[in-house]
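Q: My collaborator sent me two sequences in one message, no labels, and asked for predicted structures for both. Can we handle them in order? The first one she listed is below.
A: Yes, handling them in the order given. First sequence, followed by its structure tokens:
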Amino acid sequence: MTRQKAAERIDLGLEDDQPYRGSLRKPKKGWFQKGDPKYGDQERLVVDWDIGRKDGTTVRDWMSQAIGQTATGKPSKMRQLLNALAEKPAETELWWDAETREWGYDLSNDNSAAYAVLSEGQTVIFKGENRINGKGQSNYRITGYRSPAKAKKDDG
């Protein structure tokens, strides 16, 4: 059996709670992957964000495909992401189709047309925080998304 080691962690130098612009990239292993067993058999959406580094380093985010709210009443990260891509408020209700990566906003009709498709090149603003994982390694974890259009209004 071939022994494998975990990939070396790269400190990206990202700061806690600072906004970063990312351009969506499809991971080499695909959009949907099984990860930590604590999430059960459900595949999670995996996205890589190109943050403009010359070396091509990206920031990876794994998220449940839940599009509701968390136990604290905050929109799920998936809902935040899709609404940020559509330049809508994070709380806006939507539907999601994992097979086609489409989402939309007409909840009154099961056959309504999709608003958009999750695809490479789309951009958002994300924030996160540096955390120490169970192995004592530092990880940058994305905690929320917002639209680039809102960022221009808010930051400018």
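Q: And the one she listed second?
A: Here it is, processed independently of the first:
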Amino acid sequence: MSTLDLIKEVSQLTDRAILFHSAAGKDSIALLDLMHPYFKEIQCVFMYIVPELEHINKYIQYAERKYDVQFIQIPHFALYNYIKIGHLGIQKDIKTHLPNLAIITDRIKTKFGIDWAFFGFKQSDSMNRRLMLRTYENNAINFKNKKCYPLSEWKNADVLKYIESKQLINPIHYGGICQSSGTSIDDINFLLYCKKYYPNDYQKVLLYFPLAELIVYKHEQGRKTA
């Protein structure tokens, strides 16, 4: 079954969908474009580690204008763990509960009264995702939990080719091999990108994670002595 057939199959069951959208990530950029013609309402959900970053909001605003969709921004489930352990100097709270993506998804479904949720996961992302996705119908639809993964059988090159062919906004590539869109707060490439291109975002990251500056300092000192 093709990607569009997967999307159409769910759209025959409902005209409203939730899309967990990473804002600047290639998979989300492509998936929203694929879904848009088939749903009356798509509620996008962006999960942040640091809220209201300028370079992320540019992508959210682009999507809202182009597709007439609405975004909500909520804490990423990884953020709760960072708070619980006081990662990189963030204000620590050992009593913080640790909701996973399934719990967060159920909360969003209840909040908006929307049954189906879409995700940009691909089998090529990791072994865990490959094993999970292969348990679903057509490797992509979990009818029991009403979740759909239309890009399941795509590769990164397929996603980038689609974005180019449709002339969509280019995704952010922070550098290195990290595929996340700002969720790995200790990723030096993410930190250097913010510092170089969006200094206000960099300062906001340091406001929440002050010890992240030490990662950048060690990196820059290492380059000076190399």
